Amino acid sequence: MQTIGILGAGQLARMLALAGAPLGLRFLVVDTAADACAGQVAPLLLADWRDFDRLADFASRIDVATFDFENVPAETAQWLTEHVPVFPNPRALATSQDRLEEKTLFRRIGLETPDFEAVDSRDDLARAVERLGVPSILKTRRLGYDGKGQFRLKSPADVDAAWAALGGAPSILEAFVPFERELSVVAVRSREGEFRAYPLTQNWHADGILSASLAPAPDSEALAPLAFAHARRIAEELDYVGTFALELFVQGGRLLGNEMAPRVHNSGHWTIEGAPASQFENHLRAVLGLPLGDTSALDIHVMLNWVGELPPATPILAEPRAHWHDYGKSARPGRKVGHATVCARSAEEMRERLTRLGRALGREEQVAPVLAVLKGAG
Ligand code: AMP
User: Fold this and answer.
1) Pick from 20, 17, 64, 63: which is nearest to 36 by CA?
2) According to the model, what pLDDT value does residue 292 have?
3) In this structure, is residue 41 part of a structural domain?
4) Is residue 135 in contact with ligand 1, taking CB distance under 6 Å?
5) Which CATH number is 133's domain given?
6) Are 129 and 136 in contact (CB under 8 A)?
7) Separation of CA 314 and ligand 1 centre (Å)
8) For position 307, what pLDDT does the model report?
9) Does one domain contain both 158 and 19?
10) Most buried among 224, 292, 302, 335, by the most CB within 10 A?
11) Do 185 and 327 fall into the same domain?
């Protein structure tokens, strides 16, 4: 019987623990919040990320450590490696914690990115706006996720407001990309270097937070080999072990790297019901040195994210092949509190299900962009 330690006890840790139960695994989750939702399904240790006495206790009770949260301080991850195997490794974590290092890595392996400039001062920002123009997006290098730590500049006069909004933190300014669509690669690499990717997923965001995903992404066969090759190169460069996601923009048929998440990812939640081995199960297999599971898609899948508050569960529970996930969190604006995955055998069947559910849930706006894409998919 092995025990997996997870730093961060949010919904990702919760779904990892649920995926590990059939494998006979035990879990110990650690978080700074006493009500962290993975604590409802696994023992929770309360600790500050720099409380090394508590973390020593944590390390002594686990066989391997992993993350549900990439903003664990890099020195904490490094310290842990001296006590217990840690996957992904701290260098991979540190690279993906920093937007400048991440985008520099993307370019080094041949993945184009939106045009960007490093910004360390207000003057840097003014110069960057002059070169890249507007609209553009100022993003903090560190500690940003779900659209947090970002400011969209609509006019050159926004320089002061943008610099103040981010509190003068080291940042990058990115040219705004009028992309046709957003795709993600969710992939997994084993301790032995075996690499597998789930089919490309198409994603829609609202206010910078994932709103819906469709997998496999329609008409993505031509892009998939290149997208997977980029993901593989990145994982190999970082000697990455575990599940990760690479977020891509498609513009004029080209792939641009937006960011990578060094963990299981919201755009891979559909794999719980939609693949023979989910992203969560494969992450556990990878960090334990077990063979990886099949990453093919069983059908067509749509994941709808519940942000802020849950809609009524009954329409999902009443719908054939729809799956309800409630993370056991209290409602709060901008907070991910649950999701649903809808499965169907054909685009037509999916359109019917989503149309019915959108109406019953009062979420017509959320399903509309997915329906628009499914219309073109025959
Ligand atoms: P991020 O936190 O960087 O993943 O940004 C969240 C979302 O904002 C992305 O998924 C996009 O929908 C949008 N976004 C971020 N960067 C850009 C960009 N350079 N151009 C256009 N949209 C962007």
Assistant:
1) 17
2) 98
3) yes
4) no
5) 3.30.1490.20
6) yes
7) 33
8) 98
9) no
10) 302
11) yes
Residues 217 and 68 grouped into a single domain: no
Mean pLDDT, range 304-322, rounded to an integer: 97
Residues 160, 254 share a domain: no
pLDDT for 221 beyond 80: yes
State in Å: Cα 258 to ligand 1 middle: 7
Does 98 sit in the ligand 1 pocket, CB within 6 Å?
no
Same domain, 171 and 218: no
Give residue 137's domain range.
115-175
The pTM of the full predicted model, rounded to 2 decimals, is 0.96
Q: Report the pLDDT averaged over residues 261-266.
A: 97
